[in-house]
Amino acid sequence: MASSYGEDASKSALRSSYEAVSAKLAPAHAERVDREIRIHFTAMAAYRKAPLILAYVTYRDEMDTTPLIKKAWKDGKRVAVPVCDRGKLVFYEIETLEGMRAGSRGVLEPDPAKCTPISDDDLEDSICLVPGLVFDAEGYRIGYGAGYYDNYLANYPGLKVGLVRALRISSNPLPHDDHDVPMDVLVSDGSVWVCDRGIKG
């Protein structure tokens, strides 16, 4: 596990360290781990209650969210994924993964002309799945450096959930500042971890 103290405390150094760890993960092992994460997430009471899941489309070696999106539809839930519009995230409801287009950084996103944006009224009891390269026990994360999610989460009223392979949970606190928004819950292949007191997992 990478340290988050001393010279390794910079986000860029930690990002490189965890990318190297992920590169060593065999595809079959990653698939098995991701399946365990999905099982733990969909067993949560908050998931069963949520009418809307704000998901993300997998980037690089993040957990594959495609099976989870399909599972949410099967469970009768609405699903929305983000588009980066002038530096801001805007979530659009999707009913299929077909027709997605390459957007910022090559990440697949919906076509706003063919989808409906999510309104603030839609967010009650919703869950936002937040991508990250590494998380710590307090729910802070290091992503790929753009900061779009932190801007969005600053005013998001629902449950903030990080889906994370156990190998990507830092044993030490991660560097963060006032701009960084921590998760409420971390869901790994080993457990569901409530980061914020008073949040129901």
What form results from the Cα inertia axes? globular
Give the overall pLDDT as a whole number: 85
List the uncertain runs: 1-8, 197-201
> Roughly how many Å is the radius of gyration?
16 Å
Tell me which CATH architecture applies here. 3-Layer(aba) Sandwich
- Based on helices, strands and strand pairing, what is the structural class? alpha/beta
What is the number of E strands? 12
Beta strand %: 15-25%
Number of helices: 5
Overall tally of structural domains: 1
* CATH fold description: Rossmann fold
Order of secondary-structure elements:
HHHEHEEEEEEEEHEEE
Distance between the termini: 26 Å
| Main pleated sheet | 8 strands, mixed
**Proportion of residues in helical segments:** 10-25%
Name the strands of the widest sheet in spatial order. 6-3-2-1-7-10-11-12
Q: Mind telling me the CATH superfamily name?
A: NagB/RpiA/CoA transferase-like
Name of the level-1 CATH class: Alpha Beta
